[in-house]
Amino acid sequence: MQALFDNISELKNINTLSKHEQLVNGILNTIESKELKQGDRLPSINVMVAEIGYARKTIVKAYEDLKGRGIVVSKNFKGYFIADVNTKTKLRVCLLLYSFQTFQEDFYNTFREELGKKYIINVFFHHNNTDVFKDILERTSGRYGMYVVAPIQAPEISDMLQEIPSEKLLIIDRYLKMPPAYSYISQEFENSTYRQLKKLLPAILKYKTFILFYRDDKDYPIGILNAFNKFIAEFYINGKVVKRYKKESIEKNTLYFFINDSYLWEVLRDSKTNRFALGKDIGVIAHNDNAIKEILFGGITTISTDFKKMAIEAARYVKFRDPISKITTSELIQRNSL
């Protein structure tokens, strides 16, 4: 380990570097000179204190910084080890999403592009399953420098996430009540969905029936259901909530509102089979916009958050750690399906 101690000592003469930066750069330099290899054990905290003379918290901070980049890993009761010799990595990011739906793919691609190649992003999916969510958090605990999480909206999830330091966690997509120190970029569903439905009132009135597909056993936002029920009651719309779409049950003069795309594809297939024209024989509104909905059947009307903008703001937080508490609203993109 003498090479490591020598490299750190040389950096002590550079006044522009903090003690923390001297330690980090000293370790990186020793890796680059191949005097530290993958699997090698780093000196213990006590040994570093004795050899370098810096406070324990300064050394721990340097080791934790390198853990966040994925360069160092800690093993219980065994110490710190070199896990990766790619010293150009700035940060390892754990991105935990519901599932890889098209709009979340848009988020990921933009997030990836904004961060650049020096950031390593590992993506996980919890599928709105608390046990899966908990297992992922346990397996990734302490292995990443940043966690960007689309949470399950439950108090026990909030308790789990509070085990992550606030500066290393960003909540995205769904709102979850957390202590004020935690940052979030979350959607608001009820008021914004209601406002957009009001904008569509003249088009909605063309149809005899307005149907929302909503399943309470899925991760569907309750705010959309509340907005729909408020809207049809206020404007005396013949509306109803249905859990599932039954194949070949499509009817003329009906407007369909989808949260999940799987039912949307089924209705579009049946409309093609029956030669129903969108915007004339039937109407379609979908939640969450994407490129496919922009071009399919001449364009599907959507009520959606701008996930690309959310991804840009999330990437900015990862880079600069400026606290953010933002609620994003859903916007209307009206196309030919009405």
TrEMBL record:
CDD domains, from UniProt? WHTH_GntR
**Domain named HTH gntR-type: residues:** 17-85
Q: Give the keywords, sorted.
A: DNA-binding, Transcription, Transcription regulation
Gene3D superfamilies assigned to the protein according to its UniProt record, in alphabetical order: 3.40.50.2300, Winged helix-like DNA-binding domain superfamily/Winged helix DNA-binding domain (1.10.10.10)
The source's domain of life comes to Bacteria
Instruction: Tell me the SMART domains matching this sequence.
Output: HTH_GNTR
Q: Which InterPro entries match?
A: Peripla_BP_I (IPR028082), Tscrpt_reg_HTH_GntR (IPR000524), WH-like_DNA-bd_sf (IPR036388), WH_DNA-bd_sf (IPR036390)
Query: What PROSITE patterns does this protein map onto?
Result: HTH_GNTR
| Name of this protein | GntR family transcriptional regulator
Q: Which organism is it from?
A: Postechiella marina
Source lineage: Bacteria, Pseudomonadati, Bacteroidota, Flavobacteriia, Flavobacteriales
